[in-house]
Amino acid sequence: MGTFLISHNRWPLMGQFRISRSTLSQIDMVQVTLRRSGFEGRGECRPYARYNDTVKSVTAQLESIRDTVENGLENQSLTAERLTDLLPAGPALNALDCALWDLRAKTEGRPIWEILGTPPPQARKTAFTLSLDTPDNMKKAALEAKAYPLLKLKIGDQDALNCVKTVSAARPDAKLIIDANEAIKIADLKSFHASLSGLNIALVEQPLPAGQDGPKSLPNGLPYCADESLHSASDLRRLKAAGYRAVNVKLDKCGGISAALTLMQDAKSMGFDVMAGCMVGSSLAMAPMMILESFADYIDLDGPLLLAQDCEYGLQYDGPFVHPPIRKLWG
Fold this sequence. Notes:
Layout: E1 3-19, E2 22-36, E3 39-45, H1 55-63, H2 66-74, H3 80-86, H4 91-108, H5 112-116, E4 124-125, E5 128-130, H6 135-144, E6 150-154, H7 160-170, E7 175-179, H8 189-195, E8 201-205, E9 224-226, H9 236-242, E10 246-249, H10 251-254, H11 257-269, E11 273-276, H12 283-291, E12 298-299, E13 317-318, E14 321-322
Parallel strand pairs: 5-6, 6-7, 7-8, 8-9, 9-10, 10-11, 11-12
Antiparallel strand pairs: 1-2, 2-3, 4-14, 13-14
Helix pairs in contact: 1-4, 3-4, 6-7
């Protein structure tokens, strides 16, 4: 008989993690475990308040389809395609989708990339995130992160430009991803944009609140990247019209590795650069996205580096390089 387990994991962070709308000292994750015929598949998601998700709501979504999942495991009729009829895109679907793919890989004794028909994943340089702080503290953090040539700066609506310029001066060798998490007012965007001229900017991520980035709302000249405004492939045409040149694909937004692969391929076909992104989480939450690294121009999978403790068999980080997951972790 198939077994469907749902558990709640809490991971303490290494200090506080601050972005424009929240400050965290720990994160709560929901893990799905599927068992059948002596094999086990796992997936993990991060319920995110920005999208009105909680551990309770994600668990309730998963519990609502328990009988269907367990019956589907038993008669082997449960497929990734069927899951999209059971759950909407989001963290619950992500955890279940990834657990089902992991179970299939282990049952068949084949690596997940072979089953998906994607290139074997390779080690890649990941961005390293600097939490929102004072300019001096962000400068200190940037200098401590000297091994990372790509830094992601969390900024808010206060002292944002000073933070960016202070870090840029301290680390002229590093490319910068400026991540405002929707904190820039539309009236301030042109002056914000102009003030970044001459800096070593890789991307400017989600400056405006989702919904305010209408047609031609973003100035030309910098590579703007959509995050909160992107959930599915149906968003891509609207984002192109707004002036975005890149998109941040996250498993918890689109609903797992199945949807992420399609979204990344569609985005590339439309000329977008693609970031393989993450919520802060354990290596189990990062692992499926690392399988898709060949479809990404930028890798932002540093979540485990921000934790005080990672899960067992966690991803290997070698300086700025993150390696694909080993079989005991996922896939």
